[in-house]
Amino acid sequence: MGAIVFNLTTAALMVLMFKSGLALIGEDTLRRRPVPWAAVALTAVVVGGVVLQLCWSGAMDALDSDPRKSGWWRVVTSVFMQNGGFFGAAWNIVTLAAMAALAQWFWRGPLMVGLFAAGILLPERIDALFGETSHSTDPRNFAGSSGATYFLAATLAAALLLTTSDTRQRLLALSVPAAGLAMWLAQDNGHGLVTVYGFLLGAAALPLAERLRRRTERPACTAQAEA
Questions:
Q1: CB-based burial of residue 100 (10 Å sphere; 0-12 exposed, 13-18 middle, 19+ buried)?
Q2: Distance of alpha carbon 90 from its chain centroid, rounded?
Q3: Which of 71, 113, 126, 146 is 20 to 30 A from 221 in CA distance terms?
Q4: Number of Cβ atoms within 10 Å of the Cβ of 75
Protein backbone atom coordinates (compact mmCIF):
# COMPACT_ATOMS: atom_id res chain seq x y z
CA MET A 1 0.00 0.00 0.00
CA GLY A 2 2.85 2.37 0.81
CA ALA A 3 4.34 1.95 -2.68
CA ILE A 4 0.96 2.65 -4.28
CA VAL A 5 0.50 5.85 -2.27
CA PHE A 6 4.07 6.89 -3.12
CA ASN A 7 3.45 6.42 -6.85
CA LEU A 8 0.08 8.16 -6.74
CA THR A 9 1.39 11.25 -4.97
CA THR A 10 4.39 11.38 -7.28
CA ALA A 11 2.09 11.25 -10.31
CA ALA A 12 -0.26 13.84 -8.79
CA LEU A 13 2.65 16.25 -8.36
CA MET A 14 3.51 15.88 -12.04
CA VAL A 15 -0.11 16.62 -12.96
CA LEU A 16 0.04 19.86 -10.96
CA MET A 17 3.21 20.91 -12.78
CA PHE A 18 1.80 19.95 -16.18
CA LYS A 19 -1.28 22.07 -15.52
CA SER A 20 0.97 24.93 -14.42
CA GLY A 21 2.95 24.66 -17.64
CA LEU A 22 -0.21 24.69 -19.75
CA ALA A 23 -1.51 27.73 -17.89
CA LEU A 24 1.82 29.48 -18.37
CA ILE A 25 2.06 29.14 -22.13
CA GLY A 26 -1.69 29.08 -22.85
CA GLU A 27 -3.37 25.81 -23.72
CA ASP A 28 -5.12 27.45 -26.68
CA THR A 29 -1.75 28.32 -28.25
CA LEU A 30 -0.42 24.76 -28.49
CA ARG A 31 -1.45 24.21 -32.09
CA ARG A 32 0.36 27.37 -33.17
CA ARG A 33 3.60 26.57 -31.41
CA PRO A 34 6.66 25.50 -33.42
CA VAL A 35 8.13 22.02 -33.06
CA PRO A 36 10.26 22.09 -29.86
CA TRP A 37 13.33 20.55 -31.40
CA ALA A 38 15.51 20.79 -28.30
CA ALA A 39 12.86 18.89 -26.34
CA VAL A 40 12.63 16.32 -29.13
CA ALA A 41 16.41 15.87 -29.07
CA LEU A 42 16.48 15.51 -25.28
CA THR A 43 13.71 12.93 -25.37
CA ALA A 44 15.53 11.07 -28.14
CA VAL A 45 18.63 10.81 -25.95
CA VAL A 46 16.56 9.28 -23.15
CA VAL A 47 14.96 6.83 -25.59
CA GLY A 48 18.44 6.04 -26.86
CA GLY A 49 19.46 5.19 -23.31
CA VAL A 50 16.62 2.67 -23.08
CA VAL A 51 17.64 1.14 -26.42
CA LEU A 52 21.22 0.91 -25.16
CA GLN A 53 20.01 -0.98 -22.10
CA LEU A 54 18.10 -3.42 -24.28
CA CYS A 55 21.12 -4.01 -26.52
CA TRP A 56 23.85 -4.06 -23.86
CA SER A 57 23.34 -6.04 -20.68
CA GLY A 58 26.17 -4.18 -18.95
CA ALA A 59 24.80 -0.69 -19.54
CA MET A 60 23.32 -0.24 -16.07
CA ASP A 61 26.45 -1.44 -14.28
CA ALA A 62 28.62 0.89 -16.34
CA LEU A 63 26.40 3.98 -16.29
CA ASP A 64 24.22 4.04 -13.15
CA SER A 65 24.97 6.18 -10.09
CA ASP A 66 25.69 3.43 -7.57
CA PRO A 67 27.84 5.24 -4.95
CA ARG A 68 29.90 2.08 -4.45
CA LYS A 69 31.25 2.40 -7.99
CA SER A 70 33.74 4.96 -9.27
CA GLY A 71 33.20 7.11 -12.36
CA TRP A 72 32.72 10.87 -12.64
CA TRP A 73 30.29 10.38 -15.53
CA ARG A 74 27.72 8.45 -13.56
CA VAL A 75 25.85 11.47 -12.21
CA VAL A 76 24.98 12.37 -15.83
CA THR A 77 24.71 9.01 -17.58
CA SER A 78 22.50 7.53 -14.86
CA VAL A 79 19.78 10.03 -15.80
CA PHE A 80 19.49 8.41 -19.21
CA MET A 81 19.15 4.91 -17.78
CA GLN A 82 15.76 3.63 -16.60
CA ASN A 83 15.18 1.02 -13.92
CA GLY A 84 11.44 1.20 -13.24
CA GLY A 85 10.44 -1.51 -15.68
CA PHE A 86 8.37 -0.93 -18.81
CA PHE A 87 5.75 1.31 -17.21
CA GLY A 88 8.30 3.30 -15.25
CA ALA A 89 10.39 3.93 -18.36
CA ALA A 90 7.29 4.86 -20.37
CA TRP A 91 6.17 7.30 -17.67
CA ASN A 92 9.60 8.92 -17.52
CA ILE A 93 9.84 9.29 -21.28
CA VAL A 94 6.32 10.67 -21.75
CA THR A 95 6.59 13.15 -18.88
CA LEU A 96 10.01 14.33 -20.04
CA ALA A 97 8.75 14.86 -23.59
CA ALA A 98 5.74 16.84 -22.39
CA MET A 99 7.49 18.98 -19.81
CA ALA A 100 10.56 19.63 -21.96
CA ALA A 101 8.28 20.86 -24.76
CA LEU A 102 6.40 23.20 -22.43
CA ALA A 103 9.68 24.38 -20.95
CA GLN A 104 11.20 25.06 -24.35
CA TRP A 105 8.19 27.09 -25.45
CA PHE A 106 8.53 29.28 -22.39
CA TRP A 107 12.24 29.31 -21.55
CA ARG A 108 13.44 28.64 -25.13
CA GLY A 109 15.76 25.83 -26.11
CA PRO A 110 19.18 26.73 -24.61
CA LEU A 111 17.79 27.76 -21.23
CA MET A 112 15.52 24.71 -21.10
CA VAL A 113 18.51 22.43 -21.65
CA GLY A 114 20.46 24.39 -19.06
CA LEU A 115 17.69 24.00 -16.48
CA PHE A 116 17.48 20.27 -17.19
CA ALA A 117 21.24 20.01 -16.70
CA ALA A 118 20.86 21.92 -13.43
CA GLY A 119 18.31 19.31 -12.40
CA ILE A 120 20.99 16.67 -12.92
CA LEU A 121 23.88 18.43 -11.20
CA LEU A 122 22.49 20.75 -8.52
CA PRO A 123 20.34 18.61 -6.18
CA GLU A 124 23.28 16.60 -4.88
CA ARG A 125 25.27 19.80 -4.31
CA ILE A 126 22.38 21.46 -2.49
CA ASP A 127 21.83 18.38 -0.36
CA ALA A 128 25.47 18.53 0.68
CA LEU A 129 25.09 22.16 1.78
CA PHE A 130 22.32 21.13 4.16
CA GLY A 131 24.11 18.05 5.41
CA GLU A 132 22.08 15.58 3.36
CA THR A 133 25.18 13.69 2.26
CA SER A 134 24.10 10.11 2.80
CA HIS A 135 23.71 8.03 -0.37
CA SER A 136 20.78 5.74 -0.82
CA THR A 137 21.48 2.01 -0.90
CA ASP A 138 18.26 1.31 -2.81
CA PRO A 139 19.19 0.28 -6.39
CA ARG A 140 15.98 1.89 -7.66
CA ASN A 141 17.55 5.27 -6.92
CA PHE A 142 20.67 4.64 -8.98
CA ALA A 143 19.13 5.62 -12.32
CA GLY A 144 16.20 7.40 -13.97
CA SER A 145 15.31 10.72 -15.58
CA SER A 146 12.38 11.55 -13.31
CA GLY A 147 14.37 13.69 -10.86
CA ALA A 148 15.68 16.03 -13.56
CA THR A 149 12.25 16.10 -15.20
CA TYR A 150 10.50 17.10 -11.97
CA PHE A 151 13.16 19.76 -11.38
CA LEU A 152 12.61 21.20 -14.87
CA ALA A 153 8.82 21.03 -14.59
CA ALA A 154 8.86 22.93 -11.30
CA THR A 155 10.58 25.88 -12.97
CA LEU A 156 7.40 26.42 -14.98
CA ALA A 157 5.29 26.61 -11.83
CA ALA A 158 7.62 29.30 -10.47
CA ALA A 159 7.37 31.26 -13.71
CA LEU A 160 3.58 31.00 -13.60
CA LEU A 161 3.47 32.33 -10.05
CA LEU A 162 5.59 35.35 -10.98
CA THR A 163 3.91 36.20 -14.28
CA THR A 164 0.17 35.72 -13.70
CA SER A 165 -2.33 37.91 -11.89
CA ASP A 166 -4.99 35.20 -11.84
CA THR A 167 -5.58 34.04 -8.26
CA ARG A 168 -6.44 30.47 -9.21
CA GLN A 169 -3.32 30.15 -11.33
CA ARG A 170 -1.20 31.52 -8.50
CA LEU A 171 -2.69 28.97 -6.11
CA LEU A 172 -2.00 26.24 -8.66
CA ALA A 173 1.63 27.36 -8.93
CA LEU A 174 2.04 27.58 -5.15
CA SER A 175 0.60 24.11 -4.72
CA VAL A 176 3.63 22.66 -6.51
CA PRO A 177 6.35 23.47 -3.95
CA ALA A 178 3.86 22.98 -1.10
CA ALA A 179 3.00 19.47 -2.30
CA GLY A 180 6.66 18.72 -3.01
CA LEU A 181 7.74 19.72 0.48
CA ALA A 182 4.88 17.74 2.04
CA MET A 183 5.88 14.66 0.04
CA TRP A 184 9.48 15.00 1.15
CA LEU A 185 8.56 15.36 4.83
CA ALA A 186 5.84 12.69 4.88
CA GLN A 187 7.26 10.10 2.50
CA ASP A 188 10.94 10.97 2.18
CA ASN A 189 10.05 11.30 -1.51
CA GLY A 190 13.00 12.78 -3.38
CA HIS A 191 10.78 13.92 -6.25
CA GLY A 192 9.22 16.39 -3.86
CA LEU A 193 12.55 17.80 -2.74
CA VAL A 194 13.94 18.30 -6.25
CA THR A 195 10.65 19.97 -7.15
CA VAL A 196 11.26 22.56 -4.44
CA TYR A 197 14.79 23.09 -5.76
CA GLY A 198 13.52 23.50 -9.31
CA PHE A 199 10.84 25.95 -8.21
CA LEU A 200 13.41 28.15 -6.51
CA LEU A 201 15.77 28.08 -9.49
CA GLY A 202 12.89 28.85 -11.85
CA ALA A 203 12.05 31.96 -9.82
CA ALA A 204 15.70 33.02 -9.96
CA ALA A 205 15.99 32.30 -13.70
CA LEU A 206 12.93 34.31 -14.75
CA PRO A 207 14.67 37.73 -14.85
CA LEU A 208 17.43 36.24 -17.01
CA ALA A 209 14.88 34.69 -19.37
CA GLU A 210 13.04 38.00 -19.72
CA ARG A 211 16.28 39.84 -20.43
CA LEU A 212 17.28 37.32 -23.10
CA ARG A 213 13.81 37.51 -24.62
CA ARG A 214 13.96 41.32 -24.86
CA ARG A 215 17.43 41.13 -26.39
CA THR A 216 16.19 38.68 -29.02
CA GLU A 217 13.06 40.65 -29.83
CA ARG A 218 14.80 44.03 -30.10
CA PRO A 219 16.63 43.30 -33.41
CA ALA A 220 13.43 41.96 -34.91
CA CYS A 221 11.53 45.11 -33.97
CA THR A 222 14.36 47.26 -35.38
CA ALA A 223 14.31 45.35 -38.67
CA GLN A 224 10.53 45.80 -38.96
CA ALA A 225 10.84 49.52 -38.30
CA GLU A 226 13.53 49.91 -40.97
CA ALA A 227 11.39 48.02 -43.48
A1: buried
A2: 16
A3: 113
A4: 13
